[in-house]
């Protein structure tokens, strides 16, 4: 019965999306294209991740619904254009999952998650046309994902092709080297050089994350959350003292920061 209810609600949502796009439907929805709504998929995914981090179950339900809406909306546009259908999307994904999970639907074995991942990658490499489509070991890294994630995926692919530091310590030395080049660029006051060297420093830092199995994107988000906690504590302290934020001297800001840090925020 639960599966029937799931199917019924999925079909209901699909019909709602179709109705919005039909003549007499919503003028805004009918005017949209793949390009005009592409940013919504990124935004809705981000809002789901926010709800996940907050442990907001109801928020997760709502935001996953918004993500599903984007899939249905793009599929509906594809059907109208005659380029692809929702059935094709579902069939392609199901076929791919079966094809790549050889340890579930085939004869290979996977005793742990790492072996399962290796099976996935091996199956992916042997798919019909996969090798022909890819002319570089770096092919397949999306241009639209956040920069830190894109950098880490790029470095992972390079590592699989054999390009990596022989010793992990060398990655840390590379970060130090890039930091020194940032200092030199700052001294030169060359805006173009400063941007380039800061980019190199970020890239080298992401590589250090990769080597130590740290998700760079998650590490940055963790640092941002920590900054939020400490800054908001400083705001509370200033409000309690009746002191406007802009009246703080550099030393007062530093003292407030140290106090927030001392509280474990």
How many strands? 0
Describe the main β-sheet briefly: none
Rg: 25 Å
Q: Unreliable segments (pLDDT under 50, ≥5 consecutive)?
A: none
Please state the overall shape, judged from the principal axes of the Cα atoms.
globular
Helix and strand composition category: mainly alpha
- Order of secondary-structure elements: HHHHHHHHHHHHH
What is the helix tally? 13
Percent strand: under 5%
What percent of residues adopt helix (DSSP H or I)? Answer: over 70%
Distance linking N and C termini: 48 Å
Mean pLDDT: 93
Oligomer: single chain
Q: What do you see in this structure?
A:
75% of the residues lie in helices and 0% in strands. The protein is an all-alpha fold. The chain is globular, with a radius of gyration of 25 Å. The mean pLDDT is 93.
Write the layout of secondary structure elements.
Elements: H1 2-21, H2 27-31, H3 34-54, H4 57-81, H5 86-100, H6 102-105, H7 113-125, H8 130-133, H9 147-160, H10 169-188, H11 191-211, H12 216-240, H13 250-262
Helix pairs in contact: 1-4, 3-4, 9-11, 10-11, 12-13
